[in-house]
Fold this protein.
Amino acid sequence: MCEGAPDRLVGVNEDLVVTGPDFVVVLDGATAPAPQAGVESGCRHDVTWLVRQLGTQLAVPLIGRSTASLADLLAEAIAGLGALHAGTCDLSNPDSPSSTVAMVRVGAESVEHLVLADSPVVLRAPDGRVTTVADDRVDYLPEYTFEAVRKARNQPGGFWVASTLPAAAYEALSGTTPREQVASVAVMTDGASRYAERYGHSWEDLVAVLESGGPRELIDRVRAYDVAAADGSFRGKRHDDASAVICRLS
């Protein structure tokens, strides 16, 4: 059984959560720079469109019980997404809209995961041990100017996201865990995972909040921290879209 919640304080949530009988997909669209910044994405579509279309491309084979690997499914989804707007948009533009991807698929004998960019997956074992799969490559860039991030996006030695390059799927962190070793799985965007990554709680604490209070409780706690955080005490946005899913397997 899976329980999920998306949240945004103002406007449209650019996250997307898709769940099925045996899978979870969580996407977090990268907010496009403001038009006044002089950045041209080469794409007529916004981030919300990209996230919804990518989610659809992923959901169809997962619902159909495809046996392809999660990386293959993601590569095919990115290719299919590209085909939807190749005739109207410049897919070679490095500033094209993009998204993180976190996927989990539960089988009779194993639990598969895939993480691309900063939307982590956390697996809790029956004995309480927690394994976190987090793609933190963006945290190791030498600088975070717009130009530096632009040059590092979907490049060796940089970081990878789902956008226009199907090969990015094979740069994701993926793996398989025997099902009997997984009691629950948490999947979330970085707007929710900051409970651990920014605000100092352990991943065990984060999973405990999800299991006891559900995704809404976790997001409410994050929002309270966001409001109280002192200026200059964090990198990035004070507030961000937040989505979380907890799946109990036993």
